[in-house]
């Protein structure tokens, strides 16, 4: 079984959100739908010392996350209609929008915020890995859009051979929960999964 | 505001109440070897029970984004707990409802009705088990803990006890010793329920991801907990004070107690849904 | 189950796990009820593919971000359905794809924006009220030319002003700046000329300041040369947010820097996205104190004998007594200034610099040593720090570091200016000379409306004439939002513009109902780049320059017309049509300009080929090294300064300092010294307004362009950055609504409480679309409600990052 995945180079990502908007344009998504989202994680502090300010480990980094097309997808496991399913031919986790009943339980379960409810349509929507483009030999729209070349796409075993297997970094959950098909190159500032020294700085943008 | 998931709040609480009540009423009927006449005499108060269940189901469908496709919820029977929940809930409703219908129509003998009762009880139990499993998702730390089954079971027991007593009293099939025993059970259950609430509150204080602290998910969490407990105690008061005077229990005071206990459960369930978070984003 | 679905013809996707898994119970139930499961809302829609007329057209984004991006418009039935960018080739660095940023990818939402100007309109209410009536193009042309002819007759051509506007900076026919390069200027110059402006809102102070240091526009090595450096120091330079696209410089910056793995130090009050874990050290600095840091670093290098004395002796004027010009007083050299032997008698020790900059002493000492021992080093500055009240001095000071380290003119080195690029020469639209010589600073047009009689060369930097003869009576505002939104002190501007007896006629030519358009008397709706052909170029691209042939993707929307068409029609009424058009249509000009370009450079693809390939890139295997020839042979290749050398001490500035009339707290100085400036951290006004507010370029917009695209506004929310220390003192939490205010106005916006900004400093992305309520409070986060119209001393430029404000909590999130 083929399994595609994403490589996310957080050391290069500047949080520009081109991936997010390129996807939004291509998929014609509304304001609240973001199949790909860019999370801004930051922390640190300042201490005053006379006339000067000492900065204590001020950091920030971004993570561009769409759907990780997990090997053990939490969304699929809880879906009662079977609309949320994992495709045999490419490993993409896709919601059949014609079957979905809109119970939103998948979004309860997904720890990456991938399935999103479209209120007008009454069902869930999510990143489908641009499987139609991929079938034509093209890249997903977001990957091709990245001005920093911080995103790559391909069969996950190839990405893992090239870049290793890490898929853990704050604020993502432990990869053992859903076995996401992503490889993350850590930013110099990266904090481990479960870190609580930083905070999500852009909760309303994702 | 903790009631944004109002349809699920009502569905789960009402379903647990109805199933709890049914299990107790039917157990008694089976244990006491009720005659068919006796069973049939429960038809009016049992209507209340099925009405509660029915309203619960109506609430469940209002939760759906595409209610016209509600039947698709069965698709994953056997693999998704939500499908199991819907299926066994519907089956419980159908079989138990059939039994009630037979009692109304005075058709079928005691054995048939009792057989249906047993089936409905089994279905109801699986329904309740499924409902717990629906929320036992390992990516949701505020749900994936012992307090989810405990609190769901406590709702089944407390609200079920109250509803069953309401049925007995309304069917004029009660007496002081039964009322007292039920009330004693209720006091024990409520004490356990309070312990569970305290335990849960403690656990919430410890759950935290990189993105959120569970304790900060609900503004005024403490006040809601207080309201939940206060409503429960008030309900208990209406329930047991008549017993202290050894007077007979009236269906009116029981109704008031039931409403107060349900309100408490609804607040608790509202908190349950509002405390949803994942271990990630 | 599967069979049922296939028979009913609804299996339109592929085989499905869930179908196989569905239980027999459900199948039975479905069979029994005769309903096929799963229920589908629209069983056949997905299987049908409508026949559509689809084409992919090369277009471009031509806004003023510094990059120019090709956009490949996917057009179906005459409508842009989605936008792709350069996706040709294998994207190898050096011959890489020019990838558009989030804004370019949202172009469709700009073209089809509900704010689009649809028809020519004439003001009916009070000016600025935003009330217009629809008129015909004929009426519009007649109204404009009629009024203009009257004003020229009554006041003269110097009463007609072309306002700054860079909305189509990347175009060629549609180019909106510099004024002389625009079609409006061509039209006006055929009709007697116009009042010109110099400088720009982006670089006023650095253009003026470093002109005296390097002679003309100051260049620096291209970012691609970072692959050869030992030390990378970026002063307020933030390509991740100012040069975002793939053709732009952040990609060059990161790849080159990763190649050399040079130690990288970011000096900025904000922890920028350019830093973001790609830096070795972030040195947060108080705004407007860069020159003090430089003096402290110079002190370290001088006292520890780490300067490149040979370089300073050979290439520079005024470093020490040896090279000081004869006209200069004794001890007026830079070294004396640093060592406390100059006028002020203050030694510029790291301790002195630390108190001013807020940077710890040991950080300054270490940095000075690092620079002194890693020569040459790459030192670049962004344009933010020069956009301040003492910006002319600050930008010159930073250049000192490149001189002290002998970094100028060599690979791996720098000049201290902003990075430069290699360009492909291209023949532009021919210009007509302006008969009017008078020019004002682009920042002083509001003054030229209401106090022109006071404005002279010595007081207000009037150039080409001793004083202004006439007030501005008419403004052409083409593809610009500086009429309101992007000019400082919006409330003052509003007051000046509201008087329609002063400036009598404002013509706005634009795509959208901007806040500037609301102040128009006549609105002429312009085409977007998607609706016409043009050559697009001048993108900053290090050593891989390119140009784009943007072609018409869709028909003009509503009644909008091209700037070429408008100006041709106006020229006709002014009796200069033939001279204006030279008999060519826009398409013919485009072909003609390219033919002229190919005459100079026959290696370029043919016009027909360009149509097909859309973008032409040229790969260079060398980097742009600023002043390389000068460094090799300064006598044969002198700089364009008075002395031909790099002028640390400028005699010209000494002269200007003597003759110009300045306010007490304003300084023009022959040396790049540090001075406290108005609305800096030492200004007494800090007792009332204790926070320094600095603007920044925000990813949601390019200046104000794209500021009305809802999807971008949601993806990158307008917020004011405030440190948790300042927030806590004010009871502000992340996401709360706050009021930012000073004597000039008030803005309400959500707070981003973040340690990514120095305490006592707050920051607001510039360009948000001014949204006033009835009480003059802006609710969009438009920074220019808070900025001052007081110009900087030398450039008479916009000090839009020198603002003192206070912030208070308004509403909890």
Describe the structure.
The complex is a heterotrimer of chains A (206), B (281) and C (813). With 206 residues, chain A is an alpha+beta fold. Chain A is 18% helix and 28% strand. Chain A is built from 6 helices and 10 strands. Chain A has helices at 18-26, 74-78, 105-109, 131-135, 141-145, 156-163; strands spanning 4-9, 37-49, 52-65, 84-86, 93-95, 116-118, 123-125, 151-155, 182-185, 198-200. In chain A, the strands form 4 sheets. In chain A, strands 8-1-9 form a 3-stranded mixed β-sheet. Chain A has a 3-stranded antiparallel β-sheet with strand order 3-2-10, with no helix packed on it. Chain A has a two-stranded antiparallel ribbon with strand order 4-5. The longest helix of chain A is centred in the N-terminal third of the chain and has 9 residues, at 18-26. Chain B is 73% helix and 0% strand. The mean pLDDT of chain B is 94. With 813 residues, chain C is of the alpha/beta class. Helices cover 28% and strands 15% of the residues of chain C. Chain C has 26 helices and 27 strands. In chain C, β4 and β5 (132-134) form a beta hairpin. Residues 1-37 and 41-48 of chain C have low confidence and may be disordered.
CATH superfamily of chain B: Formate dehydrogenase/DMSO reductase domain
Low-confidence stretches of chain B: none
Shape of chain B: globular
Tell me the CATH architecture of chain A: 2-Layer Sandwich
Please bin the fraction of helical residues of chain B.
over 70%
- Strand tally of chain A, please? 10
* Low-pLDDT ranges of chain A: none
CATH topology (fold) name of chain B: Formate dehydrogenase/DMSO reductase fold
User: Domains counted in the coordinates of chain A: how many?
Assistant: 1
Given this structure, which CATH class of chain B is correct?
Answer: Mainly Alpha
Layout of helices and strands:
The complex is a heterotrimer of chains A (206), B (281) and C (813).
Chain A: E1 4-9, H1 18-26, E2 37-49, E3 52-65, H2 74-78, E4 84-86, E5 93-95, H3 105-109, E6 116-118, E7 123-125, H4 131-135, H5 141-145, E8 151-155, H6 156-163, E9 182-185, E10 198-200
Chain B: H1 6-32, H2 36-40, H3 43-62, H4 81-105, H5 110-135, H6 147-170, H7 176-206, H8 221-244, H9 251-274
Helix pairs in contact in B: 1-3, 1-5, 1-6, 1-9, 3-4, 3-6, 4-5, 5-6, 6-7, 6-9, 7-8, 8-9
Chain C: H1 2-7, H2 17-21, H3 24-33, E1 54-61, E2 69-76, E3 79-85, H4 107-111, E4 121-123, E5 132-134, H5 137-154, E6 160-162, H6 183-190, E7 196-198, H7 204-214, E8 231-235, H8 239-242, H9 249-260, E9 263-267, E10 281-283, H10 290-303, H11 309-315, E11 316-317, H12 334-339, H13 350-357, H14 361-373, E12 378-381, H15 391-404, E13 439-441, H16 445-450, H17 457-460, E14 474-478, H18 490-498, E15 505-510, E16 522-525, E17 534-536, E18 546-550, H19 563-573, H20 577-581, H21 586-600, H22 607-613, E19 615-617, H23 628-632, E20 646-647, H24 651-659, E21 691-696, H25 710-715, E22 719-722, H26 724-729, E23 737-742, E24 745-753, E25 761-765, E26 777-778, E27 803-811
Parallel strand pairs in C: 6-14, 7-13, 8-9, 8-12, 9-10, 11-20, 14-15, 15-16, 21-25, 22-24, 24-26
Antiparallel strand pairs in C: 1-2, 2-3, 4-5, 4-16, 17-18, 18-19, 21-27, 22-25, 23-24, 23-27
Helix pairs in contact in C: 5-19, 6-19, 7-15, 10-13, 10-14, 10-15, 13-14
């Amino acid at each position: 079984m083929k399994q595609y995945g994403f490589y996310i180079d957080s050391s290069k990502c500047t949080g520009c959100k081109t991936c997010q908007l390129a996807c939004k344009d291509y998929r014609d998504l509304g304001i609240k739908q973001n199949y790909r989202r860019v999370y801004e994680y930051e922390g640190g502090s300042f201490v005053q010392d006379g006339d000067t300010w000492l900065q204590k480990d001020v950091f920030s980094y971004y993570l561009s996350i769409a759907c990780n097309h997990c090997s053990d997808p939490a969304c699929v496991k809880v879906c009662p209609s079977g609309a949320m399913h994992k495709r045999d031919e490419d490993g993409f986790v896709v919601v059949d929008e014609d079957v979905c009943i809109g119970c939103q339980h998948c979004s309860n379960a997904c720890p990456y915020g991938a399935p999103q409810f479209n209120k007008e349509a009454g069902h869930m929507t999510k990143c489908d890995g641009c499987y139609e483009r991929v079938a034509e030999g093209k890249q997903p729209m977001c990957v091709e859009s990245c001005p920093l070349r911080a995103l790559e796409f391909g069969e996950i075993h190839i990405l893992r051979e090239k870049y290793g297997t890490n898929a853990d970094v704050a604020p993502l959950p432990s990869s053992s929960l859903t076995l996401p098909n992503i490889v993350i190159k850590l930013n110099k500032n990266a904090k481990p999964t479960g870190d609580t020294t930083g905070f999500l700085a852009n909760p309303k943008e994702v | 505001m903790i009631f944004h998931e109002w349809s699920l709040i009502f569905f789960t609480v009402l379903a647990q109440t109805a199933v709890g009540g049914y299990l107790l009423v039917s157990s008694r009927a089976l244990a006491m070897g009720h005659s068919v006449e006796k069973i049939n005499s429960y038809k009016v108060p049992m209507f209340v029970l099925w009405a509660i269940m029915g309203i619960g189901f109506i609430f469940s469908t209002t939760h759906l984004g595409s209610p016209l496709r509600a039947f698709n919820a069965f698709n994953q029977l056997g693999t998704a707990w939500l499908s199991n929940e819907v299926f066994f809930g519907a089956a419980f409703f159908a079989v138990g409802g059939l039994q009630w219908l037979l009692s109304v129509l005075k058709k079928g003998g005691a054995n048939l009705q009792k057989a249906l009762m047993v089936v409905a009880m089994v279905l109801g139990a699986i329904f309740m088990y499924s409902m717990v499993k629906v929320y036992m998702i390992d990516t949701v730390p505020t749900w994936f803990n012992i307090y989810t089954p405990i609190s769901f079971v406590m709702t089944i027991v407390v609200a079920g006890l109250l509803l069953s007593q309401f049925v007995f009293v309304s069917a004029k099939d009660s007496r002081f010793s039964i009322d007292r025993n039920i009330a004693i059970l209720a006091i024990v259950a409520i004490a356990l329920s309070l312990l569970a609430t305290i335990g849960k509150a403690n656990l919430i204080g410890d759950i935290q991801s990189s993105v959120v602290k569970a304790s900060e998910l609900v503004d005024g969490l403490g006040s809601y907990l207080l309201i939940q407990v206060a409503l429960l105690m008030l309900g208990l008061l209406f329930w047991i004070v008549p017993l202290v005077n050894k007077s007979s229990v009236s269906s009116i005071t029981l109704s008031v107690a039931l409403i107060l206990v349900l309100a408490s459960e609804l607040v608790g369930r509202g908190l349950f849904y509002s405390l949803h978070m994942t271990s990630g984003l | 189950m599967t069979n049922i679905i296939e028979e009913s013809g609804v299996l339109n996707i592929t085989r499905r796990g869930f179908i196989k898994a569905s239980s027999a119970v459900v199948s039975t139930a479905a069979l029994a009820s005769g309903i096929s499961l799963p229920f589908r809302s629209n069983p056949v829609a997905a299987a049908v593919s409508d026949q559509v007329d689809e084409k992919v057209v090369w277009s471009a984004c031509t806004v003023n971000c510094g990059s120019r991006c090709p956009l490949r418009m996917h057009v179906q039935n005459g409508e842009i359905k989605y936008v792709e960018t350069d996706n040709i080739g294998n994207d190898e660095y050096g011959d890489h794809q020019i990838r558009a940023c989030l804004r370019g990818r949202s172009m469709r939402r700009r073209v089809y924006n509900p704010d689009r100007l649809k028809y020519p309109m004439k003001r009916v209410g009070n000016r600025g009220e935003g009330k217009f009536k629809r008129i015909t193009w004929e009426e519009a042309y007649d109204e404009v030319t009629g009024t203009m002819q009257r004003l020229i007759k009554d006041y003269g051509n110097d009463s007609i002003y072309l306002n700054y506007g860079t909305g189509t900076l990347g175009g060629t026919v549609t180019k909106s700046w510099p004024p002389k390069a625009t079609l409006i200027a061509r039209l006006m110059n055929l009709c007697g000329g116009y009042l010109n402006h110099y400088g720009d809102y982006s670089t006023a102070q650095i253009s003026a300041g470093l002109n005296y240091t390097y002679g003309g526009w100051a260049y620096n090595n291209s970012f691609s040369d970072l692959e050869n450096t030992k030390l990378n120091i970026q002063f307020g330079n933030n390509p991740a947010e100012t040069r975002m696209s793939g053709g732009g410089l952040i990609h060059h910056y990161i790849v080159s820097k990763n190649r050399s793995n040079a130690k990288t130090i970011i000096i900025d009050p904000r922890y920028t996205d350019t830093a973001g874990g790609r830096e070795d050290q972030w040195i947060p600095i108080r705004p407007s104190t860069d020159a003090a840091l430089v003096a402290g670093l110079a002190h370290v290098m001088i006292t520890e004998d780490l300067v490149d004395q040979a370089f300073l002796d050979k290439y520079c004027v005024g470093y020490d007594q040896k090279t000081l010009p004869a006209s200069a007083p004794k001890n007026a050299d830079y070294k004396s200034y640093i060592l406390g032997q100059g006028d002020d008698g203050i030694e510029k020790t790291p301790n002195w610099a630390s108190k001013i900059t807020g940077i710890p002493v040991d950080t300054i000492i270490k940095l000075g040593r690092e620079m002194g021992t890693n020569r040459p080093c790459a030192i670049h500055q962004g344009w933010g720090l020069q956009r301040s009240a003492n910006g002319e001095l600050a930008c010159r000071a930073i250049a000192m570091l490149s001189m002290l380290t002998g970094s100028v003119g060599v690979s791996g080195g720098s000049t201290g200016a902003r990075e430069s690029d290699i360009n492909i020469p291209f023949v532009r639209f021919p210009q007509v000379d302006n008969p009017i010589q008078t020019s004002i600073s682009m920042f002083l047009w509001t003054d030229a409306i209401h106090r022109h009689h006071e404005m002279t060369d010595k007081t207000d930097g009037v150039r080409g004439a001793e004083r202004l003869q006439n007030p501005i009576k008419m403004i052409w505002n083409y593809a610009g939002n500086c009429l309101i939104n992007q000019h400082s002190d919006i409330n003052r501007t509003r007051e000046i513009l509201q008087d329609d007896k002063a400036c009598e006629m404002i013509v706005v030519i634009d795509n959208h109902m901007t806040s500037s358009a609301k102040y128009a008397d006549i609105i002429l709706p312009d085409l977007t780049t998607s609706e016409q052909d043009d050559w697009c170029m001048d993108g900053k691209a290090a050593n891989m320059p390119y140009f784009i042939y943007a072609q018409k993707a869709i028909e003009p929307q509503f009644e909008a017309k091209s700037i070429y068409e408008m100006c041709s029609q106006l020229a006709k009424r002014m009796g200069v049509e033939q001279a204006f058009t030279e008999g060519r249509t826009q398409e013919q000009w485009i072909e003609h300009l390219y033919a002229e370009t190919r005459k100079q450079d026959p290696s370029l693809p043919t016009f027909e080929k360009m149509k097909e390939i859309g973008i032409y890139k040229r790969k260079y295997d060398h980097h742009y090294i600023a002043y390389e020839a000068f460094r090799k042979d300064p006598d044969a290749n002198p700089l364009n300064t008075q002395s031909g050398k790099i002028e640390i001490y400028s005699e010209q500035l000494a002269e200007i300092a003597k003759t110009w009339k300045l306010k007490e707290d304003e300084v023009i100085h022959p040396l790049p010294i540090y001075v406290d400036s108005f609305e800096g951290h030492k200004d007494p006004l800090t007792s009332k307004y204790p926070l320094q507010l600095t603007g920044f370029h925000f990813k949601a917009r390019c200046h104000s362009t794209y500021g009305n695209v809802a999807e971008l506004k949601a993806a990158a929310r307008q917020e004011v950055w405030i440190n948790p220390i300042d927030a806590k003192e004010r009871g502000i939490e992340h996401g709360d609504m706050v009021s930012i205010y000073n004597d000039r106005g008030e803005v309400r916006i959500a707070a981003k409480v973040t340690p990514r900004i120095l305490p006592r400093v707050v920051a607001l992305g510039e360009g948000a679309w001014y949204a006033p309520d009835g009480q003059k409070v802006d609710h969009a986060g438009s920074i220019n409600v808070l900025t001052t119209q007081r110009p900087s001393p030398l450039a008479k430029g916009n000090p839009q990052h020198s603002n003192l404000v206070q912030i208070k909590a308004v509403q909890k999130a």
